Amino acid sequence: MASRRRPAANCIQASKHLGTDAGFAAKLDAARVSLERRIAAGGAYTGCSRAWAIVFWARLNDGDMAHESLVMLMTKSTGPNLFDTHPAGKGWVFQIDGNFGATAAIAEMLVQSHEDAIEFLPALPKAWPDGHVKGLRARGNLEVDVAWARGRAIQAELRPKLPGEFALRAPKGQKIARITRNGRAVPLAAKLRLDAGSRYTVEFA
User: Which letter, b or e, does each residue of 173-191 get, where b requires 16 or more Cβ atoms within 10 Å of its Cβ?
Assistant: First the structure.
């Protein structure tokens, strides 16, 4: 199973870390083709590998395909007690990898943090037009809440546990309209300095 997922994983990881490379778009296209072909050839048939597929689609910012794989995991690789399943003879055995992987993948659909940047709703599927999430953890040791309606981000709150500088990225088609620190407006900038113990509210347009 590891050999099936590694090429797609490596391709997506490489494209994320080489985002300034001239061939960035081509790397993403290659990752997508690799993922599509592996699934078409029978990949992602276990809960563990299907969880990988969800997070791959999330990293490709394709919320609808991530949701499709999430539905497949819940209908084909989840037992009545919500345990992730792995085929075993005529039945199945519990495999916790899919449970951990699916929850991590859902988090990646809603918030991603790479290279000192925080992306809000990078892979929100059309099936989730309204909602909110609280307490997600981003790299740099900060908690993130996000609320959205009609498929668009409304507001986010950041609660850093350590100081740091981060680029904040609005969902596609939106922009950051206002940021406040403990209720007071702060200037919009390419990177925002976050102080430990403060609360930052981000409003979107």
Answer: ebebeebebeeeebeeeee
Residue showing tokens 């990177």: 191
Select from 57, 68, 70 the least CA-distant residue to 31.
57
Q: How many CB atoms lie within 10 A of CB 126?
A: 9
Element at 66 (helix H, strand E): helix 63-76
Laid out side by side, the sheet with 176-181 consists of 131-138, 142-149, 152-160, 200-204, 176-181, 184-185
Phi, psi of 81 (to 5 degrees): -95, 10
The 10s digit of each residue's pLDDT in 24-71 is 777 788 888 888 888 887 777 788 888 999 999 999 999 999 999 999
DSSP annotation of 186: -
DSSP code of 84? B
Q: How many CB atoms lie within 10 A of CB 3?
A: 6
Determine which helix (DSSP H) or strand (DSSP E) holds 120, and give its type and residue range.
strand 117-120
**H or E segment and range at residue 87:** strand 85-88
Q: Rounded to an integer, what distance in angstroms lies between the CA atom of residue 36 and that of residue 38?
A: 6
**At CA 64, angle to CA 39 and CA 106, rounded to 5?**
85
pTM of the model: 0.85
Mind listing the pLDDT tens digit for each residue in 1-22? Answer: 444 445 455 555 544 544 555 5
For residue 152, list its beta bridge partners.
Answer: 149
User: Tokens 């790299």 appear where?
Assistant: 139
